[in-house]
Design a protein that fits this description.
The chain is of the alpha+beta class. It has 12 helices and 20 strands. The chain is elongated and about 105 Å long.
Length: 590
C-alpha cells in the first residue's frame, strides 16, 4: 500500500469516527410535536383495550374482543380542564402510596394508578429542583396513568369503568408491607375485587378477581392499559428511542410517536413479554399474565385537536358459570430504568428481556458489559469517573499486543520517512512507478503501513458503546466526578470564552469549550507528534487541524466521554514512549 493510500485510509477512519460522534447534529429527526391536552380515558376521552371499531363521538374505543359485538361506551369532554394537578387529585377518594422510591396515590374512582412521584430523582442537579413526577391523573395537561379491568363478551353486563367508585375493603396505605384491596358489586351478581401490591422499588402487582353470584353464565376478558396525554417533548436522537415499545414473543419492537400517528393502530400478539411507553430515563410498562397468549395494541387518536397515546393488552376469555370465579395477576412497572433492577425483575417475575427497556443499541453485546464494568468500579471507588479511568486502563492492556504491533509499524514507517521522501522526489510525476517502488520498499523492510490503523478501528465501537452508556443509563445521570464536573452525562460546564467562569456572563452552548475538551485536544496533539508526519503536505495540514476539530466537536458531548478520550490519549502516549524506548535500546547497544 502506498503512503498516499495508507494516509487516505487513516484519514477515512478518523472521518468515520467524526461521523459516529457527530451524527446527532446532522441526522436528528424533525422537531417533536407540540404537547397538547386530551380528553379523559374512555369516558375520559381516551381508549380502552382491544376493540375492532371506534364508538362514540369523543374517540373512545370500546373494550370488546374481536369475536364479540362491541358495546358502546359513553364519552365526555374533560370535566376540569382548568384545574391544577393538586385540585384534580382532590376530585376522587384516594389510597396513599408510600415506598422507599415512590410517593403518590391510587384513585378509588376508576381504580387508576395516576399519581406517582419519584422521591430520589430531581429534574435538575439543584436540591431545590422539583422531584420527577411520573404519573398524573386525567384532567391534567400531562395526564399519564394506568388502569386494569374487565370487558364483557356480551352486551348488558355491567363491568367497572373509569367512573366506577370502588370501595376500600382491605388496607389503608399501599406500601411494600401492606397491600390494599378494592371491591365493587355490579348489582347483577358480579363482585369485582382488585388487590394492589408494590415492592421496595417500582414494581406493582395487580391481582383481579371476579365472582359470579348470579344465575347466568358470564364471559369476561381482563385488560390493562397505559394512557398518555399529549406528545411528550423528546430529545429527537436516532440513537435513543422514546415512545411506545415492548417485547413480543422475545422480540423487541420500538414505535416512534410520529410513526404511531401515521398508523393509528399497531397490533401484536404475544405469550409473555411486556409493553409500555418509555422516556429517556423513565418507563411505565405492563407485563401481562406470562402463561397465556394476549392481544396487544399501541394506539393513537387525535380528539378535538388533542393527542392521545395508549399501550394496552386484552387477555384470554374467562367463562364464569353461576357460582364460579376467576383470578388473573399481572405486573405494572412505573419508575426509573435502573439496569440491575430490570435484570432482577426478568428473573423474579419472569418478564422476558425487560432490560431492553434501556436502549443499549446495536452494540448491546459490548455496551451492557461496559455498563456493568463501570458499575463494578463505581462500587469499589465510589465514583463513576474513576471507573471510566480504570476501565480505560483495562482496554489499553487488552489492546497492548495490537498497539505493540501498531507502534512497531509506525516506528518503522518513521525510519523509512527519508527514503519515502526521496522516492517522491525521484518519481513524483510517475505515480505508478512511485507506488511500485514504495511497495518494494515496504516488502524489503517488512513493513505493513496499514498496521497503524488497527487500534483506531478497535476503538470506534468501544468509544460509541461508552457514549451510549453515558447517554442512556440513569446510573450516569447527575453522577459527579471531581472539581467542576458535577454530571458525567452532561458536557463540561466551563468555557474558554468566559475564562472558565471568571467573567460573569453566560455563553451559548456552541461556545462551551471547557477544560476537559481542551485537555483532550492537547493530549491528542502530543500523541500526534509522536507519530511520523504524513509525507503529503495537504494531509499533513489536515492532520494538524484534527486536534482542534475534535476539541470543538466533543466539547458538547458528555464530560465522561471526553475524560475517557483524554485519559486514553495519555495512556497511548505513555505506551508509545515506552515501546519506542524499548525498540531504541538494542539499536544503541549495537
Amino acid at each position: 500500500m502506498a503512503v498516499d493510500e495508507q494516509r487516505n485510509l487513516f484519514l477515512a477512519i478518523l472521518l468515520s469516527l467524526l461521523i459516529l460522534v457527530g451524527f446527532q447534529y446532522f441526522f436528528s429527526p424533525p422537531p417533536p410535536v407540540e404537547d397538547a391536552t386530551v380528553s379523559q380515558e374512555a369516558s375520559e376521552g381516551g381508549m380502552v383495550p382491544e376493540a375492532p371499531v371506534l364508538e362514540g363521538d369523543g374517540g373512545g374505543i370500546t373494550p370488546a374482543p374481536s369475536s364479540m359485538q362491541p358495546v358502546a361506551s359513553p364519552t365526555e369532554k374533560d370535566e376540569h380542564p382548568s384545574l391544577t394537578r393538586e385540585e384534580v387529585l382532590l376530585q376522587s377518594g384516594r389510597v396513599r402510596i408510600e415506598t422507599p422510591q415512590l410517593v403518590g396515590s391510587l384513585a378509588l374512582t376508576g381504580a387508576r394508578l395516576d399519581d406517582l412521584t419519584l422521591v430520589k430523582y430531581r429534574e435538575a442537579l439543584s436540591r431545590e429542583s422539583p422531584l420527577i413526577t411520573l404519573l398524573s391523573p386525567p384532567g391534567t395537561p400531562d395526564a399519564y396513568f394506568a388502569r386494569h379491568g374487565w370487558t364483557a363478551g356480551a352486551k348488558g353486563v355491567a363491568v367497572p369503568d373509569n367512573k366506577t367508585v370502588w370501595g376500600l375493603s382491605d388496607g389503608k396505605v399501599l406500601s411494600p408491607e401492606n397491600p390494599v384491596t378494592l371491591r365493587w358489586d355490579n348489582g347483577q351478581g358480579l363482585v369485582f375485587a382488585k388487590t394492589f401490591e408494590v415492592d421496595d422499588n417500582f414494581m406493582f402487582t395487580v391481582t383481579q378477581r371476579v365472582e359470579n353470584t348470579g344465575s347466568e353464565k358470564v364471559s369476561l376478558y381482563p385488560y390493562g392499559l397505559i394512557s398518555r396525554t399529549g406528545t411528550p417533548s423528546t430529545l429527537g436522537f436516532y440513537i435513543l428511542h422514546e415512545g411506545p415499545l415492548g417485547v413480543f414473543d422475545g422480540t423487541l419492537e420500538e414505535v416512534d410517536y410520529d410513526e404511531l400517528q401515521e398508523e393509528h393502530r399497531i397490533a401484536q400478539t404475544t405469550t409473555g413479554g411486556w409493553l409500555g411507553i418509555t422516556d429517556k430515563y423513565w418507563l411505565v410498562a405492563l407485563a401481562p399474565d406470562r402463561g397465556n397468549r394476549v392481544n396487544t395494541k399501541f394506539r393513537y387518536d387525535n380528539v378535538q385537536g388533542r393527542n392521545k397515546y395508549q399501550a394496552d393488552y386484552l387477555g384470554r376469555e374467562f367463562v364464569l358459570a353461576s357460582g364460579g370465579n376467576a383470578e388473573v395477576s399481572s405486573n405494572l412497572f412505573a419508575g426509573a430504568k435502573i439496569v440491575e433492577l430490570l435484570d432482577a425483575y426478568t428473573t423474579t417475575y419472569g418478564i422476558d428481556r425487560f432490560d431492553l427497556a434501556v436502549d443499549f443499541g446495536w452494540f448491546y453485546f459490548l455496551t451492557k458489559p461496559i455498563f456493568y464494568a463501570l458499575n463494578f468500579f463505581n462500587r469499589i471507588f465510589g465514583n463513576f469517573g474513576l471507573g471510566i479511568l480504570a476501565l480505560t486502563i483495562i482496554f489499553r492492556l487488552l489492546m497492548y499486543p495490537l498497539a505493540n504491533k501498531s507502534f512497531r509499524a509506525m516506528n518503522a514507517m518513521k525510519k523509512l520517512h527519508p527514503q519515502i521522501t526521496e522516492l517522491r522526489e525521484r518519481f513524483g510525476e510517475d505515480k505508478a512507478r512511485m507506488n511500485q517502488e514504495m511497495m518494494a520498499l515496504y516488502k524489503r523492510e517488512k513493513v505493513n503501513p496499514a498496521a497503524g490503523c488497527l487500534p483506531m478501528l478497535v476503538q470506534i465501537p468501544i468509544f460509541f458503546s461508552l457514549y451510549k452508556v453515558l447517554f442512556v443509563s440513569i446510573e450516569m445521570r447527575q453522577a459527579p466526578f471531581y472539581g467542576w464536573i458535577a454530571d458525567l452525562s452532561a458536557p463540561d460546564p466551563t468555557s474558554l470564552f468566559n475564562l472558565f467562569g471568571l467573567l460573569p456572563f453566560d455563553l451559548p452552548s456552541f461556545l462551551h469549550i471547557g477544560v476537559w475538551p481542551i485537555l483532550m485536544g492537547l493530549t491528542m496533539y502530543l500523541q500526534q507528534k509522536l507519530n511520523p508526519p504524513p509525507a503529503d503536505p495537504v494531509q499533513a495540514k489536515i492532520f494538524m487541524f484534527l486536534p482542534f476539530i475534535f476539541t470543538i466537536l466533543l466539547a458538547n458531548f458528555p464530560a465522561g466521554l471526553v475524560i475517557y478520550w483524554a485519559w486514553n490519549n495519555v495512556l497511548s502516549i505513555g505506551q508509545q514512549w515506552f515501546l519506542m524506548k524499548k525498540m531504541d535500546a538494542p539499536a544503541k547497544k549495537s
